[in-house]
Predict the 3D structure of the following.
Amino acid sequence: MKWRLKVACFKALSGLPGGTALYRFSQKHLTGSLRPTEARVSQKIVVGMQYFDWLEKNGHSGVLIDGSHLDFGAGWHPTIPLLFYSLGVRQQYLFDLSPLLDQELIEQTVEIFLTLLRDPQWARRIQPRRLPPNVAGKVWQSYLSDLGILYQSPYNGAWASVKGKMDLATSTQVLLHIPRSVLADCFAQIHTCLKPGGLFLATIHLRDLVASVQPGASKYNQLRYSNETWETWVNSSLMSYNRLRAPDYKELLEKAGFKVIGYDIEHGTAEDLAELERIPVASCFQRYSREDLAAKHLFFAAQKQ
């Protein structure tokens, strides 16, 4: 698909009455982009284990196992909360801006999750203390509650209920969709919800996910456009990317009061840097180094002092 056509469709749909509901319906029943699959659930398990491995390696595993967890931007498949439950976490809060979970998605995710963890390949990598039961016809909210998982969407009115109560917060491939000004407030709220010494871990794609739908398009295509052009012609209420680079996230974390204690960047290769040289970079990105512009992925760990 041509990326400009995709963007135009999102723009048009976002301007229609009921456009969001129509989009969610098409995702679930037509394109299948919300459907839990073995590949999607597996990928989330890998990220969840990345969080756990970092905590264990850096002497913080007790923050997860003996603490409480906030999943900010939980999405459609609560795989990481199911993994953390299996590792022994007793209390978890799932925050989303818009309600996305439903009975079918929960049932499908749990079924695939259990199948994977019972597979010898995964069993060698993960040593669960327990496994979540089958949903077995339970209403999904009650099912999650029985696992110590509370789903809150929208989350705007829920921050006060978790103030100073969380030991760990995570956010998986969500932060890139949040505008910088809003993200600053989100980081401040996450900082407030953590206990002193609490940790905030996140993974973030830095590459261009808009143009990735078009074969042959540059992974740095998004750097061509000014902020005004990007907001006017690309971003919409249904598809939004902030185009922040790794230093921006670090700056926002520190302004929110965090100390950044882990910061792993997937840097561009020599071929990536050569590709970047062929892109006319917009003036709003001129203040970044070529290495920052070429970076493709970020993992960070930040701590409340």
About this structure: The radius of gyration is 20 Å.
